[in-house]
Amino acid sequence: MINYLDFEKPLSDIEGKIHELRKLAGDDEIIDTQAEIEKLEARARDLLGDLYGKLTPWQKTQVARHPARPHFRDYAAALFEDFTLLAGDRKYSNDEAIQAGLGRFRGEGVAIIGQEKGHDTKSRIRHNFGSARPEGYRKAVRVLEMADRFGLPVVTLIDTSGAYPGVGAEERGQAEAIARSTEMCLNVKVPIISVVIGEGGSGGAIAIATGNRVFMLEHAIYSVISPEGAASILWRDAARAKDAAANMKITAQDLKDLGVIDEIISEPVGGAHRDPEAVIAATGDVISRSLVELGELDGDALRQDRRQKYLDIGRNL
Question: Which of 10, 100, 173, 243 is buried most, with the most CB atoms less than 10 Å from its CB?
Fold first, then answer.
């Protein structure tokens, strides 16, 4: 069963009819429904392409948050061999929202850091819906230091609505932990390739997304605050999130024009959740190409390249 978004209702009606006709055909071999099914399938394909060809920023936000969208664990399982998770920040505890460790990508040793939202109620609670606490960012720093020491490229996969804003997180130095992680990303002398696979929310995202190359999936979003949070601040009304999304330049297309990201990774028509294998494979190809390009630079050049990338954002607007 596909979890349809609200703007996909016309599509759900058509695909619902297709399902009913297939069931009818299975129950009664005398009735031939194939011609009608093919006609409806063609209509569904055309409608799907039309809907996803003109998504608004708020609709893209909904797609980026789709519960069936592939998450970090899906990418990790498909792209990395011998992936070994490392736990704990060596200071307080282990944070499950940030998953980090070592593995191999197409035969090459890499460090992997990403945010996991979870795929059902139990795992979402375990991973705190992808919102990391300070321990998560300190774990990321620990893995970045290890990668720098052993000369391992770093791949980061971003998917968070933002860092956890709870009292306990603030008491344990949430802002400082985010700043240290961002600083470590800027200072290491190994390549960092970052991909926003869903939501890229505020400092919770940039803490592990300060890479030499930053990519976004076609229907991902990346912003300093969630549309709901911006609406609450600007209009004192979270219900105006749609207006906030339209004005915040949060889509991959906007951010490519602004120079915040380097490239957009295309998604299958209908979003990544309709063909996870295809979008994960495309992401792997982009990561592989970037590793080859950055492999020609030495440590100092990599660090300077990364720092200059962020200094240049907005200069040519």
Answer: 100
What is the rounded distance in angstroms from the CA atom of residue 165 to the CA atom of residue 124?
17
Please check whether residue 139 is in contact with residue 86, taking contact to mean a CB–CB distance below 8 angstroms. yes
* SS3 label, residue 225: coil
Highest CATH level, class, for 61-312: alpha beta
Can you tell me the distance from the alpha carbon of 158 to that of 137, in angstroms, rounded to the nearest whole number?
A: 13
Q: Are 139 and 100 in contact (CB under 8 A)?
A: yes
The token pair that represents 138 in the structure block: 């300190």
Look-up of token digits 């409806």: 40
Alpha helices by DSSP H, the chain: 9-27, 34-52, 57-64, 72-79, 121-126, 134-150, 167-171, 174-187, 202-209, 227-235, 241-247, 252-258, 276-294, 299-312
pLDDT in tens, 167-222: 999 999 999 999 999 999 999 999 999 999 999 998 999 999 999 999 999 999 99
The rounded distance, in Å, linking the Cα atoms of 238 and 255 is 23
Is the Cα torsion angle 144, 112, 215, 234 positive or negative in sign? negative
Residue 313, pLDDT score: 87
Is the pLDDT confidence value at 277 over 90?
A: yes
Distances in Å between the Cα of 304 and the Cα atoms of 148, 179, 191 are 15, 19, 11
Beta strand pairing status for 98-105 and 154-160? Answer: unpaired
The ranges assigned to domains in the chain are 6-54, 61-312
Phi and psi at 117, nearest 5°, equal -90, -25
